[in-house]
Design a protein that fits this description.
mainly alpha
Length: about 100
């Protein structure tokens, strides 16, 4: 019975390793996305507050342009981070596959 359990552990180790890599990548991505969602919400509220105060139209349009540029940069940085995490996970998985063969 003991040998069967040891054999099963050895056979399931690659699956456990793959799951660990996927979990780590998911946690990194989730944290970054949650942080960015909070930041976007705060920025949106600040933008709404700016619209509620009486100012001239050119100032509002300039603020809107700056807001959109900032959001675009944040989204670009998020996409870059996502690709880096996915590439890192892909390399880890490829390394595991190479070592198992």
């Amino acid at each position: 019975m003991y040998n069967v359990m040891d054999s099963m552990k050895d056979q399931m180790k690659p699956l456990a390793d793959l799951t660990a890599v996927g979990t780590q990548a998911f946690e990194k991505l989730l944290k970054k996305h949650v942080d960015l969602a909070g930041d976007c919400f705060e920025s949106g509220l600040a933008q709404a507050r700016q619209y509620s105060s009486p100012t001239d139209l050119p100032a509002l349009m300039g603020a809107q342009g700056a807001f959109m540029a900032d959001m675009g940069k944040k989204m670009f940085d998020l996409a870059k981070f996502d690709m880096e995490v996915i590439a890192e996970a892909n390399q880890a998985l490829a390394g595991m596959l190479e070592s198992s063969m």
